[in-house]
Amino acid sequence: MEYNLYQYLEKNALKYPHNIAINYKKNKITYTDFLKKINLFVNYFSFTLKIKKGERIAVLIYNRTEFLLIFYACAKLGIILVPINWRLTSFEIIHIVKDVDIKYLFSDSDFTKTCKVIKNKITKLNIIDLDSINFKENEKSTKQSIKNYSLPLLIVYTSGTTGKPKGAVLSQKAIYYNILNSINMHKFNKKDHILTVIPLFHVGGLNIQTIPALHKGAQVTLHKKFEINDTLKDLEKKIYTHTVFVPTILDLLINNKKWDAKIFSSLKAITTGSTIVSSDLIKNYEDYKIPILQVYGSTETAPIAICQKISEDRSPFGNVGKIAKYNKAKIFNKAHRETSLNTIGEIGIKGLNLFSYYWNDKNKTKQAFKNGWFMTGDFGKKDKNNKFYVIGRKENIIISGGENIYPAEVERILNQEKYILESAVIGIPDKKWQEIPIAFIRTSNSSSFKLSRCQSNLAKKLANFKIPKKIFCIKELPKNALGKIDYKLLKEYHNTLNASNYVKEK
């Protein structure tokens, strides 16, 4: 039976009143106190700020308890939460705030400078410091939990293939069925202890384990953000049963001089995803008897669509698992017919955890679906055991350290620069980040083009992970028969070059 997500916290507070829900900076909060703190925000939103159902608020913070308090308060009231990627520049954040018409932005002292820039550009925006809120402790909540679970709860912005970020709208129902997918995958129970180090603004950080664990009455320990020494030190306690690490973190840990496989002994499994994960990397962990569970999905699938289960055989290396419990998945050819086994095609997803639409963009929403299937843009195949394999990405998406980079977005900014006539951005393999972006540019006057100025301008408009690490000036960008840039040829061309060919290496 479906309930408001807040109501599950209510049930847990009754069943496990003294169990720890959240551990953050050595501050442990029981389920009873967690619920009380949620309702402080419920009252604050309802009576002080008078935020109405369907209105949008945003959070710009590192991982902290308040992120989850706000999430559940929004779930109870029907307020829409927009988590903002703190790696974005103020330029990118301003676009999101304007696009979704944010009423209140909640932040803290870590982002004072960024908030000042945003406020100067959007004077009507209310920015509230989380550490300065005066709650009315004695005021009881009178607001009933909403019962329409198809209403939006999250709008999560991803980089757009057309050059502009798009907001995927996730309903409470979608998140609920993603929770059930996660529980079926991990077999969570109230005795589990989850370590969350990846950002909660990502559906991966929020929805793969954190919210599902709280749904089952388990304990969650939050790290402000990933710091390798802090993570290693915490793992040494051997108290955690589950965690999510993106491939970059897995690589950093196993290659760290302080690496000791014994500190992972309490973990039932480590879950990973966000990109095509190196089979060698997974094998390195499996050789130490550390199980690695892969998840395949996207923001649009909240994010679990295909996954490996803790109770199932994970071989052979390279597969990302089977269809999640509340999903359907197929491999389609160009004619949108299901392919035969082991035949490469585009991955399509159906399920109760799919996003509702892209905020304020009917065209992108329409383009995302074909005959009721969400077309992921990823190529893959399925074997005789119904295990899926991800082969590549249709739109040349670059995934660097778990962050999505769409070439069109970076190219749009590059093409605004003086003397740049056109540009093309591709991803190349990188040992640390899996991929890094590099750019090819064609200029009207190569001698007048100033790369330092270009890099400086990019830094104002793009998050650091999106900025091309290397830039080439070339006479012509390769084109296909339709006149479109041939990214495949560019990658082949890059393989023939050496460091001396680069304009500059950043």
Please give a handful of descriptors for the protein shown.
506 residues, alpha/beta, Rossmann fold, GMP Synthetase, Chain A, domain 3, 3 domains, nine-stranded mixed sheet, five-stranded antiparallel sheet, disordered C terminus
Explain how this protein is built.
The chain contains 14 helices and 27 strands. A hairpin with a 7-residue loop joins strand 7 and strand 8. The radius of gyration is 23 Å and the shape is globular. It has 3 domains: 1-15 and 24-147, Rossmann fold; 163-395, 3-Layer(aba) Sandwich (Rossmann fold), CATH 3.40.50.12780; 404-505, ANL, C-terminal domain (GMP Synthetase, Chain A, domain 3). The strands form 6 sheets. It has a 9-stranded mixed sheet with strand order 2-1-10-9-11-12-13-14-15. Strands 16, 17, 19, 20 and 21 form a 5-stranded antiparallel sheet that branches. Strands 4-3-5-6 form a 4-stranded parallel sheet, with helices on both faces. Helix 1 (5-15) runs antiparallel to helix 2 (31-48) and helix 4 (90-100) packs across helix 5 (112-121). By secondary structure, the protein is an alpha/beta fold.
